[in-house]
Each structure stands twice: as C-alpha cells, then as structure tokens.
Design a protein that fits this description.
Layout lengths: L14 E2 L2 E2 L3 E2 L5 E2 L11 E7 L10 H6 L23 E3 L5 E3 L6 E2 L6 E2 L2 E2 L5 E7 L8 H17 L4 E4 H4 L13 H8 L11 H7 L1
Parallel strand pairs: 3-7, 5-11, 5-12, 6-11
Antiparallel strand pairs: 1-2, 4-8, 6-7, 9-10
Length: 209
C-alpha cells in the first residue's frame, strides 16, 4: 500500500511537475505532446484494467510492456500483442503500489480510438490509470485506496470534471475495467458529484447514496 501523497506540514507537495511523488517513476518511451488546445482541458480520468498474461498477477510484465522491454517469446499470449507500443500514466498493482510511466502533462497512449463528453481522441486530454486485474473480476481494497488518493491529487493539479472506464470511452471495442469494478465505492471515497461519473454507473451510485 502506498503512503498518502498529501503534503504534511513542512513536507513535499504531491507533485514534482507532472510526476507524482508517491509513484515509482519508470519512464516509458511511448508518449507525446498534448495538442495545444487540449493541454488546458485535461479534465478526464480513464480507469483501465490489465494483467499479463491475462488473469495472472504479480511479476513485472506490465511494466515491461509499457517500457517496450517485454520478451514477446516469454508466453504464448504475448504473440497476440507483439510489437504493441502503449503506455498509461499510472499502474496500480494488487497490493496498491503505484508506478508512473508518463508525465501527466504529456499524452500517454492508453485510450486508442475513443470519444467521451462530446470529444474524440481521449488520449489528448485525459490521464490514464491502469489497475492490475481482469475485466469482470473484482479488485483489491488496497487498489481502491490508492486510486482514490491518486484521483484526489490529480484533481489538485488538473481541472478534472469526468472519470470513466475504458469501456465507456470505447464502447464495443473495450470492456475494462468491467462489472467487477465498484464505481459506488469510488464515488463514496471521492465524494465527487454524480455528473462526473459515466451514465451507466449513475443509478447504482445514486441508489447507494
């Protein structure tokens, strides 16, 4: 479990530029400049899930994928993603530890073809957070705790107005984080207004409030 990134009296602030101090920094080559018009409107957090191979946890294959160092011959599944160049800003493992691969001021390659809140190309103006897991299955309490901490700190630096799953910004193409992800739990932890959450999750959140 990572420590809280909130600055204590006399302590350091959560951010060092676009890098979060509570995260282990592991830089990915897969990133680029945000379009000029989008740089002032980084208002979306996108939640993903990933495990490599799918359903297997632990190890460092996800970190290797995001840094272009994965051994494509290490597992038969990797042949289906061979040569893939992707990244996310953050990755939270099952124990709640967090890595950061891309400066949040820059464009990570996590969303692909996507659209949300009336805009396309969500990579341009979003921050991507990957949770170690498999779509449809449950996530760990430590992951929710770290996710909430991270979202609160992201909101301190960026004008966040929306949080959504990959499934909501690329419906029909992506299904993560899936029905095992507890949006009600996230809303209760963050105390964010209902309108920040994807429409399919709002009735459950409203019923639980």
């Amino acid at each position: 479990m990572t420590k809280s990134a909130e600055a204590e009296p006399g302590g350091l602030p959560p951010w060092d530029g676009g890098w979060h101090r509570a995260a282990t920094r592991l830089e990915s080559p897969n990133h680029g400049l945000r379009p000029t018009a989008a740089a002032s409107f980084i208002d979306l957090i996108v939640v993903h899930s990933i495990s490599l191979p799918p359903g297997e946890y632990g190890g460092n294959a996800v970190q290797q994928l995001f840094t272009n160092t994965l051994d494509w011959d290490a597992h038969p599944y990797y042949q289906s993603i061979r040569g893939l160049a992707v990244s996310s800003h953050f990755f939270i493992d099952r124990a709640g530890a967090v890595w950061q691969f891309v400066d949040c001021d820059r464009r990570a390659w996590h969303a692909g073809q996507s659209a949300y809140r009336g805009r396309g190309q969500c990579n341009d103006d979003s921050i991507g957070i990957e949770l170690e897991g498999l779509e449809g299955l449950a996530f760990e309490s430590a992951q929710y705790q770290t996710l909430a901490m991270l979202c609160r700190d992201i909101e301190q630096r960026y004008p966040i107005e929306h949080i959504a799953g990959h499934e909501h910004i690329a419906p029909g193409r992506k299904r993560d984080p899936g029905p095992g992800f507890d949006w009600v739990r996230v809303q209760k932890a963050l105390h964010w207004p209902l309108l920040r959450f994807p429409l399919p999750t709002r009735p459950a959140i409203q019923a639980a409030s």
